[in-house]
Amino acid sequence: MGTRKPVIGVPANVLMDNHGSFPGTERAYVNQDYLDCLQLAGALPVVLPMVADGPDLQAQLALLDGLLFTGGVDLDPLTYGEEPAPGLEDVYPDMDRHQLPLARRGRAAGLPILGVCRGMQLLNVAFGGTLHQDLGRSGLQHVQKGWRHAPSHSVELLDGLRRLFGQDSLATNSFHHQAVKDLAPGFRVSARARDGVVEGLEALDGSFAIGVQWHPEGMVRQHPEMLLPFQALVRAATGKP
Ligand code: MN
Questions:
Q1: Backbone angles phi, psi at 14, to 5 degrees
Q2: H and E: helices and strands count for the chain
């Protein structure tokens, strides 16, 4: 393998573009700031188009040293055994059908995984957890009105995330209306907001599977320590046997 950079797969989101010259066009995309963070951390990111679970998905995994699941639309609640609640927002079930098996098979293959926002929720659902479909207006404000890079609420850090950041709490941004409800078996909560909302999780078995509910990629320019989760992913991907 030599000095090849670790390759981190980033599954594409789907955007229905109803503007411009080609209304109704589906576009596959990843927000640039995730790719910037991976490159800053020393990885070679590759964007993964949606493929069916099967040989093509296995072939995608064979290219990779690690996986990053990004923010995006809500997961289809049917994936965790619930009917859609009134507060559910956009879902794109084809994305779930790609990303859920990618997470399961990727972890089974020993790939380190970082999940951000929807990506953390996806990790939780992939391994047997459930979600609050809509936090509504209770508790803290989790859909902040301020700038994307501005910290909005504090989170208590526990276990692996506390060690990673080297501190007991962190001020984070917050752009989510959903949250982890039942934690997936084999995971623990590693960050929590003051209202009890799960803001981070990690695998218990020592495999690298961590999730953060905030958006470190949106804070990194003003808060360089927010690169730490990406650096940890890339470190784990470098050590892949
Ligand atoms: Mn939050």
A1: -115, 135
A2: 6, 13
Nearest CA to 127 among 144, 151, 107, 156?
107
Does residue 16 have a pLDDT over 70? Answer: yes
Instruction: Tell how far the Cα of 231 is from the centroid of ligand 1, in angstroms.
Output: 22
Q: Backbone dihedral region of 86: left (phi > 0), alpha (psi from -120 to 50 degrees) or beta? A: alpha
Q: What is the rounded distance in angstroms from the CA atom of residue 179 to the CA atom of residue 176?
A: 7
Strand 179-180 versus strand 131-132 pairing type: antiparallel
In angstroms, what is the span from residue 141 Cα to ligand 1's centroid? Answer: 7
25-84 pLDDT, tens per residue? 999 999 999 999 999 999 999 999 999 999 999 999 999 999 999 999 999 999 999 999
Provide, rounded to the nearest whole percent, the portion of the chain with pLDDT above 90.
Answer: 89
Q: Is 217 a catalytic residue?
A: yes
Alpha carbon of 205 to ligand 1 centroid (Å) = 26
State the catalytic residue, choosing from 98, 117, 142, 199: 117
Q: Which sequence spans correspond to the domains of the chain?
A: 7-237
Q: How confident is the model at residue 129 (pLDDT cuts 50, 70, 90)?
A: very high
Q: Are 109 and 209 in contact (CB under 8 A)?
A: no
Ligand 1 centroid distance, CA of 173 (Å): 7
Instruction: Look at domain 7-237 and name its CATH class.
Output: alpha beta
pLDDT for 2: 54
**For residue 117, how far is its CA from the centre of ligand 1 (angstroms)?**
9
215: annotated active-site residue: yes
Instruction: Let me know if 176 is a catalytic residue.
Output: no
95 membership: H or E segment, kind and range: helix 93-108
Please pick, among 98, 142, 202, 217, the residue that the annotation labels catalytic.
217
